[in-house]
Write a structure and sequence with these properties.
This protein is α/β, with parallel strands linked by helices and 239 residues long. Helices cover 37% and strands 26% of the residues. The protein has nine helices and nine strands. α4 (111-124) crosses α5, α5 packs parallel to α6 (170-185) and α8 crosses α9 (232-238). The longest helix is centred in the last third of the chain and has 16 residues, at 170-185. The structure holds adenosine-5'-triphosphate. Adenosine-5'-triphosphate binds next to β2 and α1. Residues 7-238 form the ABC transporter domain. Belongs to the ABC transporter superfamily.
Length: 239
């Protein structure tokens, strides 16, 4: 592993029968970077994240996450990686706070640390006042923010967020993106965020990769991509 790169992906391919979900992907991501995985439905974003977490085995190629091989060392990878799937399941009849205590218990966070940690995470995601309301009363934006708090409980080095802004209104999106920006810029966490809407996430991403039918067709900063492809509007259409 290059000292700077926390994620190294080489010649990574995943096939499901005749479908090539990820096609010879090569990508390096630096520590502390916010990287956007952009692409339409079925482009291979979720499959890539699942392989990075050791939840899906590559057909070929290699992956290193903080020097670990996710296929061979999934438990070690799980310790340093937080994953928010595109549909998060919370217990609707429990409050936001109770849901976090439940996850804290699952993650074996020592009891004496739980109160302060959960209070600070609820404040960080703007749910301090709603902490004792049942999750079934939460808006989608509030649930997504609770999802981020849930992922942060184990203080992961790397955070994978699968379509976190899906279905959020502009205000909900902005609130969530502010929190995600803080994770990368202030806390030095490496964040991979997938989306099919470039305009929603481009402002917070250091670099983005555009996936189409399993292939990474371009990667770079927004201005690099705009130069390569011929204007930001062109990127918008491709993504
Ligand atoms: P979305 O935004 O819809 O989640 P995505 O970019 O995350 O899309 P993937 O979910 O990774 O895309 O899917 C990539 C391709 O792999 C699609 O053609 C999908 O149908 C296929 N695929 C994903 N998982 C499986 C599976 N378990 N079995 C068979 N095919 C799969």
């Amino acid at each position: 592993m290059n000292g700077q790169n926390i994620i190294e992906i080489q010649n990574l391919t995943k096939r499901y029968g005749s479908i090539t979900a990820v096609d010879n992907l090569n990508l390096s991501i630096s520590k502390g970077e916010i990287f956007g995985l952009l692409g339409p439905n079925g482009a291979g974003k979720t499959t890539t994240i699942l392989m990075l977490m050791g939840l899906s085995e590559p057909t070929s190629g290699s992956i290193s996450v903080a020097g670990l091989n996710p296929t061979r060392e999934p438990i070690k990878v799980k310790r340093i990686v937080g994953y928010m799937p595109d549909s998060i399941g919370f217990y609707g009849d429990m409050t936001g706070r109770e849901n976090l205590y439940y996850t804290a218990k699952l993650n074996r966070i020592p009891e004496e640390r739980q109160d302060d940690l959960i209070d600070s995470l609820l404040a960080k995601v703007g749910l301090k006042d709603a902490a004792d309301r049942k999750v079934r009363e939460y808006s989608r934006g509030m649930r997504q923010r609770l999802g981020v708090a849930d992922v942060l409980l184990k203080d992961p080095e790397v955070v994978f967020l699968d379509e976190p802004t899906l279905g959020l209104d502009p205000e909900g999106t902005a609130e969530l993106l502010d929190i995600i920006t803080e994770l990368g810029k202030k806390e030095g966490k490496t964040v991979l965020i997938s989306s099919h809407l470039l305009h929603q996430v481009q402002a917070i991403c250091d670099r983005v990769g555009i996936f189409v039918k399993g292939k990474l067709v371009a990667a770079g900063t927004i201005s690099e991509l705009a130069q390569k492809i011929g204007g930001e509007r062109a990127i918008e259409i491709k993504a």
